[in-house]
Please model this.
Amino acid sequence: MRVSDAIITRDTMSRAIVIGIDPGIASTGIAIVEGKGFRVDRHQWDVIRTLPSLPQGERLNTIHRAILQRLQHLRPNLVVIEDVFLLDAAPKSAFAISTVIGVVLLAAAQSHVPIERISVREAKQVLTGNGRASKEQLERTVRSILGIDHPIKPDHASDALGLALIGLLRYDTRS
Model:
């Protein structure tokens, strides 16, 4: 289901809407969960894609517009974004991801939505109990929590759903 097709209602006293974002310059995963703790009433995911032939500024603008539109439309309680993790192994990728994180931080600030940054290792630890879990293990855990019987593709979407689930759990323990 595409995020743009979402019609989400909210009981602000007991449920929260959390958006998870797995940043990437070519594709950014975005997922929405609504519920309380790990009790999820609704979920959707999508991927924002940009063309490699476009200048970096235009690609970032495409991502910013798409995120800002969703934040202003859905008015989530929290955004959770994956933090940079490839700094030593792949500094060029880490730089590109950092620019995407920057436009997401800007969109959240413009929408007055709190945002949390979570490392991949932390996300894997929270969801699977193993900070070194594989992408496949993480995806299977996310499917199990959400009761989805088919693989969640692409990986950016699955990762974004995992981040949104963590955000929902943390938001629940805060309120």
User: Anything to note?
Assistant: Strands lie at 16-22, 27-36, 39-49, 78-82, 115-118. The helical segments are 56-74, 91-111, 120-128, 135-146, 155-174. The mean pLDDT is 89.
